[in-house]
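To close the section, here is one more complete example, presented without commentary so you can practise reading it yourself. The ligand is zinc ion.
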Amino acid sequence: MFCVTLPDGTKKEFDAPLSVYEFAKSIGPGLAKATIAGNVNGNLCDASDLIESDSTVRIITSKDQEGVEIIRHSCAHLIGHAVKQLYPNAKMVIGPVIEDGFYYDIAIDDPFSTEDLDKIEERMKLLIATEYDIVKEVTPRAQVIAKFEERNEEYKLRLIDDMPEETEMGLYYHQEYLDMCVGPHVPNTRFLSHFKLTKVSGAYWRGDSQNEMLQRIYGTAWGDKKSLKNHLKRVEESEKRDHRKLGRRLDLFHFSEEAPGSVFWHPKGWTLFLELLEYMRKRQKAANYVEVNTPDVMDRRLWETSGHWYNYREHMFSTQTEDERVFALKPMNCPGSVSMFAQGLKSYRDLPLRMAEFGKVHRYEPSGALHGLMRVRHFTQDDAHIYCTEQQMEQECIDVVKLVLDIYKDFGFEEIIIKLSTRPKKRIGTDITWDKLEGALSNALDVMELDYILYPGEGAFYGPKLEFVLRDAIGRDWQCGTLQVDMNLPERFDIAYVDENGNRDKRPVMLHRALFGSLERFTGILLEHYTGELPVWLAPIQVMVCNISDSQTDYVSDVAAMLTQKSFRVESDLRNEKVGFKIREHTLQKIPYLLIVGDREKETETVAVRARNGTDLGTMPIEKFTDILQSEVEKRGRIA
Ligand SMILES: [Zn+2]
Ligand SMILES: [Zn+2]
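Output:
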């Protein structure tokens, strides 16, 4: 006799081994029907696997995240089943689960077209409709090899070669189709209804461009119809908001092969970028930061001292000059900042020293990883390093958190998720120091009564960190700000200050913080968050003044000059075009306000105001419009 304990603590006793499915059935037929797999003593297993001794068991259904992942993995196998029926010469490679979905790599002579993709999806649906059982058989190695040899699945054989230690493998039968996997998988195809194939692309065998190109079919799958629908809607919404498209359409920036991963900012995009930078500059100044600037190219020795030369070199751009010196483009601003601190004697009176730098950092990213403004090789951080005493540390953390949360509100982000990552297994520093540093971060959050998610063991080897994640208008999360405590660099660069008692070797605490993170990426996030409809204070052109006919040309110039003089960003459109055409064009350019002037406006010294959402705000004196504009700018992106 043995005892099975359920998550709620209930216990059930059994005389003979029974499968996870049978166990679920002993609780109720509804649960049995919903069973995808089981979690037995912390391990995921198939519904057909046996429970033989005292165990804790949780039944996994499509409502569990694990259940959804199993569904995705089983959908990948189902691609195999469908593809082999339609293209018997195809050779199956691997089919893992990825975020929100799955893919399968397939070796086939002719690349798949979108019509092929539709055909495969149709076949998968047919197979699902037959509701066949997926059968697992743990099989000895030699037999597995024989089976795949017989089927000419040479990639499966190569994968078996990669696992010389394995004496047996899990084989999953989808009727006549066979796949090898550790599982678990759904017991029946009826669980797989809520899927969609999304795209096909090329991928190299083992991810190596020296190898042959395979075909990768991507798909997404969910536990129920609604989740699938919501996901597809989200994808469609994100595509509409794609900042790369908006960047082109609104003439903000471009990328070019001559500088992969580097932004060419156009006048309008650069206006936006500078607006962000100036905003941050003002906020930092008000928070008693000083701003510095350190060199972009620095000697290899500095990077040896910082450790980057040994630990980060594959991401660094380096160069050798005529005189044989080796330099590197900075991948981070920190070492420059520390050597700045080391200049001249520092005393406790200088602390806290908050040193900000809009540093442009350079990191080599593989070209496949580059993604518009979101992932580039050269970007500008709104970086700052705070040097302080241990006693000052907690207050500094509080101030940084306050500043970051207030700043995000100005951009219309109300929902911020805070993550605290604590000491990892591999680390420097004593436990007493770690207690202090983690304490400073968590106390700061507690004092401010902020909720946070704890990530034990996820901190850097040199200190704990806070991360700030923004949730955008369509519910996507973007990690932007960070606050990190560092015990490593002050030590490596041997920096010190003189304390109240004249001790000259006191080690300061070093905090690294960035609020936007990367200005390039933050710009991309803003564009997607607002679908390009930037709030007035950020819009590269805030007002467009349009005439109806030539007789208002002078008046248009006067109005534009008056607004420009008040520091608004104004342009005028005097083209000989119909006013309706002008309105359409500037509305598509998402310019917040259009001022239309005809003879009547000219005579009465007024402007007809039109907002970009199409609202007609009526005719008003220019002063009144200036007031509206001014209050919009002052409101920034705050949600009233
Ligand atoms: Zn599998
Ligand atoms: Zn830093």
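Once you have examined the tokens, check your reading against these statements. The radius of gyration is 31 Å. The CA atoms of residues 361 and 504 lie 33 Å apart.
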